[in-house]
Amino acid sequence: MSEVVNKATLAKGTTGVLASLTTGQKNEALLVMAAALRREATAIITANGEDLERGRLNGTPESMLDRLALNVERIGSIADGLQQIVVLPDPIGDTLETIERPNGLSIEKIRVPLGVIGIIYEARPNVTVDAAGLCLKTGNAVVLRGGSSALSSNRKIVEVLHSALAETDMPKDALQLIEDPTRASVDEMLKLNGLLDVIIPRGGSSLIQNVVLNATVPVIETGAGICHTYLDSSAIPEMALNISINAKAQRPSVCNSMETLLVHRDYASKSLYSLAEAFREVNVELRGCPETVAIVPWALPASLEDYATEYNDYILNIKIVSSLDEALAHIAKYGTKHSECIVTEDQAQAARFLQEVDAAAVYHNASTRFTDGFEFGFGAEIGISTQKLHARGPMGLPALTSTKYKIYGTGQVRS
Amino acid sequence: MSEVVNKATLAKGTTGVLASLTTGQKNEALLVMAAALRREATAIITANGEDLERGRLNGTPESMLDRLALNVERIGSIADGLQQIVVLPDPIGDTLETIERPNGLSIEKIRVPLGVIGIIYEARPNVTVDAAGLCLKTGNAVVLRGGSSALSSNRKIVEVLHSALAETDMPKDALQLIEDPTRASVDEMLKLNGLLDVIIPRGGSSLIQNVVLNATVPVIETGAGICHTYLDSSAIPEMALNISINAKAQRPSVCNSMETLLVHRDYASKSLYSLAEAFREVNVELRGCPETVAIVPWALPASLEDYATEYNDYILNIKIVSSLDEALAHIAKYGTKHSECIVTEDQAQAARFLQEVDAAAVYHNASTRFTDGFEFGFGAEIGISTQKLHARGPMGLPALTSTKYKIYGTGQVRS
User: Fold this and answer.
1) A256, A407, A410, A415: best to mutate for the B interface, most B CBs within 10 A
2) CA distance readout (Å), B157 to A167, A239, B11, B279
3) Residue ranges of the Aldehyde dehydrogenase domain (chains A, B) (predicted)?
4) Which of A32, A59, A80, B331 has the highest count of CB atoms within 10 angstroms of its CB?
5) Nearest-10 crossing angle of helices B41-57, B23-39
6) For residue B62, what are the domain limits?
7) Contact: A389, B239; criterion CB under 8 Å
8) Do residues A30 and A83 lie in contact, with contact meaning Cβ atoms separated by under 8 Å?
9) Do residue B366 and residue A411 have CB atoms under 8 angstroms apart?
10) pLDDT digits 0-9 by tens, B114-123
11) Is B279 found in the same domain as B165?
């Protein structure tokens, strides 16, 4: 039996117990896990040092090494994250619907765990703890397959968490880490129907596309975001500037940041130059349509490929449009159905934009950067779904649940 | 461009208009469709005759031909089905959640259509109309790929529906029928990410497995049902008999019928013989564990493969167990997470069964045959989901929807 099948089978074996744990038992487990991480911080940092050392030898860029690096403070905030999950309401067992039928059948729709969740992710070892916490809180077993560059860290973290779970009512086999760093283990997880109930990929677009295109297990697609902001002719320049700069430059590396600014021609003729200057001040490279380049001489010409690119960087496309319709058509063509914004004082234009744009989150007069489980008040986030099935947009704890119908009869049969 | 890509592209082109149609406009379209089917019944019956003729030449069994055959009465009841969808509440536009954030952002979670739904199904031409009606009512475009044996019927039906839609506000391209009867068209649909938002297979288990194992488009798995009924030692014999006979024999060909009866040893020693006689009277072949065969001499020995088989026929496995735990273990091993029942007067045993069995529908003292959208009061059913993502159990109109967050701001940016 392969490592993947072996560990997924162990995880599946715990789902019955997990589904029956009380909220108190699950919270207790998370608290013990958090305490163990703090207590074993030194050992975790030592293991993390092996990953960093290997990374340096492999020529990994410093920015990547920084994301991988753990210290006491970071481990503390990872443990804090577990404690934050503790205070969130437990969705499991909630009654979502009650149906009384004329034949006397009483039907309850109850929230239940999904079962076994596979998470395939990249470097940062905080995901190991975060994903484990969210899955276990919702009574799911979890099979983690992290990136090979964080393998020593992940292995140590899971060892610490396993020791912690041994002191609790939560079966330690509910948490599994796949240690095989080769692609074979990912490929095997993708086809593990019957053992995994869902796979959630977290990482860059090539990781996600590999999962989406090769999995036979149901997938929740997350992540890719080519987000737009449309400045209507009636947009207030100060608000338009604040929202645009925030959407692009507050944290360009994330999926809800803006890649293309669409500007109504009337707005552009009045206010695009000063807006472009503001982008220059925060070191955003501009690429524009010919009209934009005519107004903003330092903008480079944008290609069609640019409009289809998620830069995740200090680069922005600007395109001048003549109408809301043209903006909507551009978004329909290049958007990834993640987050889209209109800045306007015209309520009718705003209403049309929010109705007609097909995306997980559509904004009127606010930055696309708010598409986030914490910003939405969910208190947690396992990812941002960019698909339409099951969950769309930021996913909090309820996104990690399924439902079950319980039907109470008194001998009813169907005629 | 292939037929599949061409038609899926046409369907996708209508999703913006579809999402904005009022409930009144959608209902009007369904009513015009229903009227057209009745008016063109003769032409549809003629086309159906071609399918029947071809079927006879190919040696299709009479029972299959009967399922394929249309007459004025059947067309009338298909049209009735559309009219029943008209009276159902339209879930689109419903506000599911409202969140007010401390920073003043106002967030609404709204029900929206999924987009373009692909339906891959087998012979019966009523599915063509039924699926079209459910998808269009929920503002979804639909790409139908029916079985080749009903191609003439389906083609004529869609022609009639297209003419009907031309008189309404519903774009006729929202309804597409793939006419290529080869497997290539199915294979192409399964990989049509970007044009199809979801595929729902309806049919036998080989059709469903092909879709589940080969699709890169998200799938809602439906159908396969190895359902159990467990007769606890405290079961009332009359109720146990009524429920068991109904679960097996009222309509054995469907997914919510029972395949294996699990019987507590105490119940078996008192009442299994008379129950077995009742099954014999309704011509159900029995296959049993050695203990069962000792009590019921005409039962054949059941193999392990029998327990894993969805007979969809007048055949039943009987297995005697010594405890609820043994029954639960059998169901966990052989069940398909569809519908499971316990018959007992012991509330504690019932509560444990309903809690611990992992299935879409779990019954206490009622027949598994009730797992059905109409019996649950949904007024419609697009299928019964046996997966845990998105929808589980009978799927009514809300299962054909997604959600979208609309966020209203006054210039908020993220800090």
Assistant:
1) A407
2) 64, 54, 18, 41
3) 17-285
4) B331
5) 70
6) 3-221+390-408
7) no
8) yes
9) yes
10) 999 999 998 7
11) no
Nearest chain B residue (CA) to A199: B389
Q: Is residue A385 part of a domain?
A: no
Are B90 and B231 in the same domain? Answer: no
Q: Which of B15, B332, B367 sits opposite A413 (nearest CB)?
A: B367
Across chain A, mean pLDDT equals 96
**Does position A124 have pLDDT exceeding 90, yes or no?**
no
Count of the separate structural domains present in chain A: 2
Whole-model pTM: value is 0.92
Judge if A184 and A276 occupy the same domain: no
Specify the pLDDT at position B356.
Answer: 94
Q: Same structural domain for residues B51 and B199? A: yes
A394 and A349 part of one domain: no
For residue B96, pLDDT beyond 90: yes
Task: Find the mean pLDDT for residues A258-276.
Answer: 98
Contact assignment for B414 to A198 by CB distance below 8 Å: no
What pLDDT score was predicted for residue B218?
92
Residues of A in contact with B351 (CB under 8 A): none
Identify whether residues A186 and A107 lie together within a single domain: yes
pLDDT of residue A328: 97
Per-residue confidence band for A380, with pLDDT thresholds at 50, 70 and 90:
confident
- Asked if A404's CB is within 8 angstroms of B220's CB, the reply is no
d(CA B141, CA B134): 10
Per-residue pLDDT for A123 more than 90? no
B306 and B278 in a single domain? The answer is yes
**For B178-215, how does the pLDDT look when each residue is reduced to its tens digit (9 = 90+)?**
999 999 999 999 999 999 999 999 988 889 999 999 99
- Tell me whether residue B280 is exposed, middle or buried, using C-beta atoms within 10 angstroms of its C-beta: 0 to 12, 13 to 18, 19 or more: middle
Instruction: List % helix, strand, coil for chain B (3-state, nearest 5).
Output: 45, 20, 30
Task: Select from A99, A218, A363 the Cβ nearest to the Cβ of B377.
Answer: A99
H-assigned helices in B282-388: 290-295, 304-307, 324-334, 347-356
Nearest to A354 among B393, B406, B415 (CB): B406
Q: What count of CB pairs under 8 Å joins A to B?
A: 209
Q: At residue B63, does pLDDT exceed 90?
A: no
Q: Which two tokens stand for residue B191?
A: 């990989």
State the complex-level ipTM.
0.93
Instruction: Name chain B contacts of A354, Cβ cutoff 8 Å.
Output: 406
Q: In Å, how far is A350's CA from the nearest CA of chain B?
A: 9
Q: Are residues A356 and A301 in the same domain?
A: yes
Identify whether B196 is part of a domain: yes
